[in-house]
TrEMBL record:
<keyword id="KW-0479">Metal-binding</keyword>
<dbReference type="GO" id="GO:0005829">
    <property type="term" value="C:cytosol"/>
</dbReference>
<dbReference type="GO" id="GO:0000917">
    <property type="term" value="P:division septum assembly"/>
</dbReference>
<comment type="function">
    <text>Necessary for normal cell division and for the maintenance of normal septation.</text>
</comment>
<keyword id="KW-0547">Nucleotide-binding</keyword>
<keyword id="KW-0131">Cell cycle</keyword>
<keyword id="KW-0717">Septation</keyword>
<dbReference type="Pfam" id="PF01926">
    <property type="entry name" value="MMR_HSR1"/>
</dbReference>
<keyword id="KW-0342">GTP-binding</keyword>
<keyword id="KW-0132">Cell division</keyword>
<dbReference type="InterPro" id="IPR027417">
    <property type="entry name" value="P-loop_NTPase"/>
</dbReference>
<dbReference type="InterPro" id="IPR019987">
    <property type="entry name" value="GTP-bd_ribosome_bio_YsxC"/>
</dbReference>
<feature type="domain" description="EngB-type G">
    <location>
        <begin position="22"/>
        <end position="202"/>
    </location>
</feature>
<dbReference type="InterPro" id="IPR030393">
    <property type="entry name" value="G_ENGB_dom"/>
</dbReference>
<dbReference type="GO" id="GO:0005525">
    <property type="term" value="F:GTP binding"/>
</dbReference>
<keyword id="KW-0460">Magnesium</keyword>
<dbReference type="InterPro" id="IPR006073">
    <property type="entry name" value="GTP-bd"/>
</dbReference>
Length: 202
């Protein structure tokens, strides 16, 4: 299907700052700098919608974007994409890390509107301890997870399958596949939109 509109709605660090509209939510989590904000821009084909930066720790709040898409049968579908601050950034202090954990966990646990968590990992590297811990935490809390491997343009086609297998193994992926994604080329965009559509239409 086609995204026809995407707009920034709100930033939050507490539950009372979440937007009031009752729309389903698709959230994006991953290490700092893995490409969450870039992926949101690429999915929406809206350059500059979410702020991107070459230095990690750019996104510091929970940011909500309202997206409208048109289905092949002309029906409209509306939901929030939720951009979360990254984890695993070495230069953040203890206090900030605790704060991160508190407000991201609060987000994951309070939301009945949260339909899918897209966990992003870098396709080039094995999942790090923080990625494994995040995946296990999400699974423990019965959240539906789609793993997306980012920066696919940096890996040659011939190495793709090997890297995907290594990530599956590293995360001990329970079910489902991994989508290889490139925000530069748009590789994986249709697959991820399909996965989101399936969840939203369920
Ligand atoms: P934080 O907000 O700091 O947690 O980072 P983030 O996960 O939102 O990452 P962001 O989208 O800001 O991207 C980080 C860097 O990676 C930027 O320099 C992007 O240009 C680059 N990047 C993101 N996605 C891709 C991709 O698919 N391919 C390539 N080559 N670079 C990418
Ligand atoms: Mg970001």
């Amino acid at each position: 299907f086609n995204v026809i509109k995407a707009r920034y709605v709100a930033s939050a660090v507490r539950a009372d700052q979440y937007p009031p509209e009752d729309l389903p939510e698709i959230a994006f989590i991953g290490r700092s700098n893995v490409g969450k904000s870039s992926l949101i821009n690429s999915l929406c084909r809206h350059h500059g919608l979410a702020r991107v930066s070459a230095s990690p720790g750019k996104t510091q709040t929970i940011n909500f974007y309202a997206v409208t898409a048109k289905l092949p049968d002309e029906r409209r579908l509306e939901w929030y994409l939720v951009d979360l601050p990254g984890y695993g950034y070495a230069r953040t202090g203890q206090a900030q890390r605790r704060q991160w954990t508190r407000f991201v966990e609060e987000y994951f646990l309070r939301s009945s509107r949260l339909k899918l968590v897209c966990q992003l990992v870098d396709l080039r590297h094995l999942p790090q301890a923080s990625d494994v811990a995040m995946y296990d935490w999400l699974k423990t809390h019965d959240l539906t997870v789609q793993v997306v491997a980012t920066k696919a343009d940096k890996i040659g086609r011939t190495h793709l399958a090997r890297h995907i297998a290594a990530i599956k193994n590293g995360l001990q992926l329970e079910t489902g596949g991994i989508i290889a994604y490139s925000a530069l080329s748009g590789q994986g965009r249709n697959d991820l939109l399909d996965a989101i559509g399936q969840i939203l239409l369920k």
